[in-house]
TrEMBL record:
This is Amino acid ABC transporter ATP-binding protein, PAAT family. Belongs to the ABC transporter superfamily. PANTHER family: AMINO ACID IMPORT ATP-BINDING PROTEIN, PHOSPHONATES IMPORT ATP-BINDING PROTEIN PHNC. Coiled coil: none annotated.
Amino acid sequence: MNNPPVPAVRLAGVMKRFGDFAALNDVNLEIAAGEKVVICGPSGSGKSTLIRCINHIEQHDGGQIVVNGIKLDRSADSIAQVRSVTGMVFQNFNLFPHMTILDNCTIAPRTTLKLSRAEAEARAMELLAKVRIGDQAGKYPSQLSGGQQQRAAIARSLCMQPGIMLFDEPTSALDPEMVKEVLETMKTLAGEGMTMICVTHEMGFAREVADRVVFMDRGSIMEQGRPDEFFGNPQTDRARQFLSQII
Ligand code: ADP
Ligand code: MG
């Protein structure tokens, strides 16, 4: 008998409180390796908190989170192991402003993975070329457009060779003409079999790329389904109301 495949991410009964406020309230979610999941929902519904708990930027305070079979148990070891298999892309890029794009991409591979400078730079240049900003490697973040900065941030994450990419509204801070180039980069990654969890309100991207859409409200998953099911026939009033506001 074959063992069932280990899910990329499994959340069971996850709770996260800020003081008395439950930002996540009994969240259960299992994501298969290679699956692409879009998380949407109103502002304040817990989307960022959810993906930040997956790589322990926030610490959950109830339930279980298991990533690639590694249980997040607050030990430095489990946190380091989970971070080594997850990449995170933020709304505001979070590049190091005082470093060139190339140095942004090589610092973690050199310090954490102990790659030589030459190895780290070769990997970085390959990935910067892949996100089509190979010619920007020597510049500082402030010299790039928002779309270029976000693609640099994606390349920086990929330099650590994560199996799971977490995106938190990666296009929300971009001017409209730059949204497409970042979504194209994300589609390329999706086509290569990356496990992706994307908080986004780009519903065209969700329809085209997502295997599953998860709708959150007030710290809970209200419903989830294939994009055609979710968009075509939402099951809850909250989802219908949300969709009527954004589409
Ligand atoms: P979303 O990403 O869906 O907009 P968040 O996950 O950022 O929502 O936030 C969910 C709720 O938790 C919000 O009400 C927010 O104000 C609250 N929250 C998030 N982070 C903190 C924090 N560090 N301290 C206190 N409250 C927080
Ligand atoms: Mg958020």
